[in-house]
Amino acid sequence: MGSNGTNADRVAIVGALRTPFLKAGTGFKDMTTVELSTAVVSELVQRMGVDPKLFTLCVFGQVMPSLDYINLAREIVLRTTLDRSIEAYSVSRACATSMQALTNAIESIERGDHDAALTGGADSMDDLPIGVSRNLARGLMAFQKAKTGMDRLKILSKLSPKDLVPPVPGYSVEPTTGLSMGQSAEKMVKENAISRQQQDEIAWRSHDRASKAWDDGFYDDLVMPVVAPPFKEGVRQDNIFRKGSKLEEYAELRPVYDRAHGTITAGNASPLTDGAAAVAVMRESRAKALGLTPLGYVRSYAYTAVDPDWQLLMAPVFAVPKALARAGLSMKDISLVEMHEAFAAQVASNLQALASRRFCEEKLGLSEAIGEIDPAILNVNGGSIALGHPFGATGARIVAQGLKELRRRNKQFGLMTICTGGAMGVAAVLEVAS
Ligand SMILES: CC(C)(COP(=O)(O)OP(=O)(O)OC[C@H]1O[C@@H](n2cnc3c(N)ncnc32)[C@H](O)[C@@H]1OP(=O)(O)O)[C@@H](O)C(=O)NCCC(=O)NCCS
């Protein structure tokens, strides 16, 4: 069975790689999103040792758009060894962007349009498009068209200092609610009665597991070294996880979004991050003919959305039963869960809802709870809080490490979820050959 049960010749994931994920403003501060993307795609194709001409489709995405080009995927094709005549388009689904890129490519292969595709996503918080206020934009346009010096002076005289303040970038405030992600997560804390202690434990565990996984070499073949400007030495590791961090340290951090009564801190939120990740997919028969060993499969997936005025980061809970049903599975068949950690508060809220019979009956129309998730199978190698979260790259990171961990545990099925801005969510069932 293929993804969502549609096709006999399955689509296999045959390669996956990411750059280190670095805290914004650090080692990748002089690299752009397209440079990070190009680095990871070039390296992945080279490591796979296949003819780049095999790939006839490139689907990539970034959440924060660039003013320098309009189609990241096409730029990647033009800057790597990929064939310049292939199809390339970019997608955007907030933090599920590289998941969207992957499932689009899977669908194209299942439909028979392509045999092999490169997918992924990237973001750099050091390569943000800095906007200008509407007044300044209007003024600049008029200035360009003005014929005389007097006309230009008139235009400038209409501008005030506040017109020079750039508007806040779209990732930080939800346009329809006017709340930042963090403020929306604080709202979920109150509505779901999530404690600070619960959040700090989730965050501490993320750091503890990420640092142990790095120590154990788990990430060695999932993460490539990148030589970034000033080109002195390669960056080999993520730089956000804290080795040996103590739970007590989290309790000392001050709330960020609601200084007086809040619970969300720099410690229990995902940090602003730079990085890129890529996943190669191929028709399984083609992969086998080439001697490639499938890393695994996306057995099923579902995208959902809820009203942002309700609980911004709750949509994955609605996606889970759909993805499980499409896979013909239930929660008891799942041996591993990779849940994107936007905020520990969202993880706690999502887990609580999945385990709540009342929530599942009232909100999802189910007759029982979807199921409790044992912390022993959740984000076992750390999550976005400790590893970082370059928005566009997170889906590809999760798929790669989820499949690797399933293979390591010799288990067949894993579940992955991502919540996103705009109150959307994705859940997917990952599978490795049993
Ligand atoms: C939460 C946020 C505002 C914090 O930003 P910041 O203040 O720049 O964070 P910093 O990393 O500088 O950390 C602040 C302090 O907490 C400390 N700290 C952070 N994590 C810590 C941890 N795990 N343990 C102990 N201390 C920690 C830092 O050392 C720093 O201390 P200092 O002030 O003494 O140097 C920022 O990470 C953010 O915007 N995150 C959310 C992004 C978002 O909305 N994403 C969309 C969700 S998908």
Defining key terms:
434 residues; alpha/beta; Peroxisomal Thiolase, Chain A, domain 1; four-stranded mixed beta sheet; 35% helix; globular; disordered N terminus; binds coenzyme A
Low-pLDDT stretches: 1-7
Largest sheet: 6 strands, mixed
Assign the CATH architecture of the domain at 3-128 and 271-429.
3-Layer(aba) Sandwich
Secondary-structure-derived class: alpha/beta
What percent of the residues sit in helical stretches (DSSP H or I)? 25-40%
CATH hierarchy class name of the domain at 3-128 and 271-429:
Alpha Beta
Mean pLDDT: 95
N-to-C series of helices and strands: EEHEHEHEHHHHEEHEHEHEHHHHEE
Content of β-strand: 15-25%
User: Can you tell me the CATH superfamily of the domain at 3-128 and 271-429?
Assistant: Thiolase/Chalcone synthase
Count of alpha/pi helices = 14
Bound ligands, each once? coenzyme A
User: Per the principal axes of the C-alpha atoms, what is the gross shape?
Assistant: globular
| Number of strand segments | 12
N-C termini distance: 14 Å
Annotated CATH topology of the domain at 3-128 and 271-429: Peroxisomal Thiolase, Chain A, domain 1
For the CA atoms, what is the radius of gyration?
22 Å
